[in-house]
What we know:
Blueprint: E1 2-3, E2 10-15, E3 18-23, H1 34-49, E4 55-60, E5 64-66, H2 71-79, H3 86-103, E6 108-112, E7 115-117, H4 119-126, E8 129-133, E9 137-139, H5 153-161, H6 163-172, E10 176-177, H7 178-183, E11 189-191, H8 193-208, H9 212-225, H10 230-245, H11 248-258
Parallel strand pairs: 3-4, 4-6, 5-7, 6-8, 7-9, 8-11
Antiparallel strand pairs: 1-2, 2-3, 9-10
The chain binds ligand LHQ.
Amino acid sequence: MVSRPVSDLLLVETDRRVTILTLNRPDVLNAFNNELITELALRLRDAERDVEVGAVIITGAGRAFCAGQDLQDRRAMFERGETPHLGAGLRERYKPMILRIRTMEKPVIAALNGVAAGAGCGLALACDIRMAAESASLSLAFARVGLAADSGASYMLPRLIGLGRALEMAYTGDPVPAAEAERIGLVNHVYPADELMPRTRDFAARLANGATLALGLIKRDFNRALSLDLDAALDYESYQQEVAGRSDDFREGVTAFVEKRQPKYRGS
Ligand code: LHQ
């Protein structure tokens, strides 16, 4: 296990080829300030580049996952008479972070230890897989404070649960409890609070120690297919499978299958 206390705002730990990023502003339910969002983007970039890392978990310290943008920061701006430029902040900080999660060719898993609201919900939706504690909930809280949706929520949410349910969540901002979220496919699995991290860590370690080249290609395939017609998606799959078919991992996978043993993948 490797621990690197890079910043108090974001705890970084690597264990069994899995990097665990813990948002660490528990007093404000891990709300994002500029430093936290920048730090998160940087550590995601590190995990993407590190060949010793095969998967990433994002979670929160304390009782919440993330309550979205820090509203105290915004209130202070209003009191100083400043005009908020949310668009610029989103483009400069949130967009690179969301794109990094979606495009890095490694599984990124949200471990929802509690509420995920606003941009915190957007962060959870951007992850490949969501695991939740029984006490967790997801809320597109934006409209409740007079904002439209951001952080990729308008793109991800309808694709995950369909347009009608997504718009209901966006219009009302009502929290969706973990059990309901699991029922509608918004989270993958729900666990008792004390089992969330051990289960998520085991799951991530299994992926991180598997055929990671193939997992990266799968993520690229699925991302690309979201904006392709079937004909083009079939072509892209063929191209990607050509790449996978030439890998050492494929050779090892076939050999292990024939020899009736566990494969030893190297991610190449
Ligand atoms: C907070 C926050 C918070 C600061 C709880 N900020 N302190 C906009 C701009 C630009 C770019 C990116 O995206 C966005 C979109 C957004 O994300 S806008 C923000 C959307 N989020 C929200 O509207 C959620 C606001 N929070 C809540 O509604 C509640 O706190 C929830 C439902 C999350 C939890 O409720 P409770 O369990 O009852 O906890 P609480 O409200 O008592 O909060 C605990 C503390 O955390 C409290 O501080 P205090 O000093 O009183 O103990 C809150 O003020 C603080 N906190 N969210 N976003």
